[in-house]
Specification:
2 domains, mainly alpha, about 0% strand, Tetracycline Repressor, domain 2, Four Helix Bundle (Hemerythrin (Met), subunit A), globular, single chain, 13 helices
Length: about 270
């Protein structure tokens, strides 16, 4: 197993985005862009916990990835399952250890999210619809994790909710992409509710996220004009994601969803400008 295979397993780009989200939460809480030791530890802790979640998910999804013929190190036989599992535990432990130096609340969040991410992969194969909430919660909690270091949750508390519901939509869209591979191994929302109802739920979650994001500005919780202006392209991209899902273009819907989340993070960052 090469170093590149290790990197592919932890999906570093996903974890970098998660780390940046935590930094944004830290900076919004501090009301300033602080480039200090705490900023480095915030990023590192979230990166490591995220990487642990990615690795353990590959371990428990091995059979599904083989069925999908996914180009992943484990599914292709380029990695040892035992080593990947040990790597996941090591990454979780390292992330929790780093968070210890950021204070009690950060440490508690890191422990809880590590346990939830492990449980999601290990125990919720037959209840993937519940697992959607765990992953979406973990993504939104990156903001709260960063804010916990300063202790100012006044703005981050409200940003948490649109981020949660937008990510719920993104997680359900993944289930549409994997519908055939998941049959017999997982119970996902498209299976439980049916395709039409699950699509409707994605649209509802997007609308909730969009309304909440604008509501935050309307009620003066966030007063940044840059934030407001960035909400418009973000909204457009989320609507394009919903439209693509309606036309069964699942890969395109997922791509738009990811782009929308990046734009949303940029809007959150713009609060500091």
């Amino acid at each position: 197993m090469t170093l590149l295979d290790y990197l592919r397993i932890i999906r570093p780009l996903n974890c970098i985005v998660a780390g940046v989200a935590a930094l944004i939460g830290y900076w919004i809480s501090a009301l300033w862009i602080l480039l200090d030791l705490n900023a480095l530890l915030v990023f590192l802790a979230v990166f490591l916990v995220c990487a642990g979640g990615q690795a353990v998910n590959d371990y428990f999804d091995l059979e599904i990835d083989r069925r999908k013929k996914a180009k992943k190190a484990l599914a292709l036989g380029k990695a040892n399952a035992g080593i990947v599992f040990s790597l996941a535990l090591l990454l979780f432990a390292a992330g929790i250890l780093v968070s210890y130096f950021l204070g009690f609340f950060a440490f508690l969040i890191a422990v809880i999210m590590s346990l939830l991410l492990f449980s999601y992969s290990a125990f919720f194969q037959k209840a993937k619809f519940f697992g959607n909430w765990i992953v979406a919660l973990g993504t939104a909690m990156t903001l709260v994790f960063g804010a916990s270091v300063i202790g100012n949750f006044e703005v981050v508390f409200w940003l948490f909710w649109p981020m949660l519901f937008a990510n719920l939509s993104r997680e359900i869209i993944k289930d549409f992409e994997d519908l055939n591979a998941d049959k017999g191994l997982k119970n996902t929302l498209p299976m439980v509710l049916g395709v039409k109802r699950a699509k409707l739920l994605v649209g509802i979650f997007y609308i909730i996220a969009i309304v909440l994001a604008f509501w935050i500005f309307s009620f003066g919780i966030v007063q940044s004009l840059a934030y407001l202006l960035l909400l418009f392209p973000t909204t457009l991209v989320f609507l394009l994601s919903a439209k693509a899902l309606g036309w069964n273009s699942f890969a395109k819907a997922q791509a738009f969803s990811k782009l929308g989340m990046l734009l949303a993070l940029l809007a959150f960052f713009a609060i500091l400008v």
